[in-house]
Write a structure and sequence with these properties.
Blueprint (H helix, E strand, L loop, with lengths): L3 H11 L5 H10 L5 H5 L6 E2 L2 E4 L2 E6 L6 E6 L8 E4 L2 H13 L17 H14 L8 H13 L4 H8 L4 H7 L5 H9 L6
Antiparallel strand pairs: 1-2, 2-5, 3-4
Helix pairs in contact: 2-5, 7-8
């Protein structure tokens, strides 16, 4: 998970010369998408201020011979098929990339690379971390950071669970929510209300 300072540094970096890959990282950081869901996202799944998660993408062992192949199919669980509101501060960026990439089916698609697979996004993300001088994070850290920051900002856990596509609130709490000491202090101060 990224610290608050690391997240701020990364966001500042991503807003410099933002390309479609940086846009994908920002979208993940502020929606909690899984990397396979991001890579499988079509423009018609991202409209009217919401993301409809209906597919995921991954590289799997080939069924026809040696090696691997790209697989696009439904998410791993029924609750992973969901709708995620796009934060209003990202809508202009979404529309900018929609216009810039007209004719592309995939949100991350470009004329040179119409499909961007998870390995490419992981590679790009590692490069961004180096350039932003952030150590020890992987793409999934964005999902952890989204969940933790959401709780720190006061999200109710049920809404967060649905946004993340979990079947149970306990999964969200156990796997993704890491309370900071500052949040614990803030919560303790709420006890003043009962004095």
């Amino acid at each position: 998970m990224l610290s608050v300072e690391e997240q701020r540094r990364l966001v500042r970096y991503l807003h410099q010369d933002t390309d479609v890959y940086k846009f994908g990282v920002l979208l993940t950081l502020y929606t909690g998408l899984r990397i396979g869901e991001l890579c499988a996202l079509h423009w018609n799944d991202l409209a009217n201020g919401r993301i409809k998660v209906r597919k995921t993408m991954q590289r799997v062992r080939s069924t026809t011979g040696p090696g691997t192949e790209l697989w696009i199919g439904p998410p791993k669980t029924e609750t992973s098929m969901r709708e995620i509101p796009v934060p209003s501060f990202l809508v202009a960026l979404v529309e900018r990339f929609r216009l810039e990439n007209q004719g592309q089916a995939y949100v991350l698609g470009t004329p040179k690379m119409p499909i961007v697979e998870p390995r490419v996004m992981q590679y790009k993300f590692k490069r961004y971390l180096l350039e932003a001088e952030i150590e020890h994070a992987n793409f999934h850290s964005l999902r952890h950071s989204f969940a933790t920051r959401s709780v720190e900002c006061g999200f109710d856990v049920k809404s967060l669970t649905e946004i993340l596509g979990h079947a149970k609130v306990q999964i969200t709490l156990d796997r993704y929510v890491h309370s900071s000491f500052a949040l614990k202090c803030s919560n303790m101060e709420k006890l003043r209300q009962i004095l």
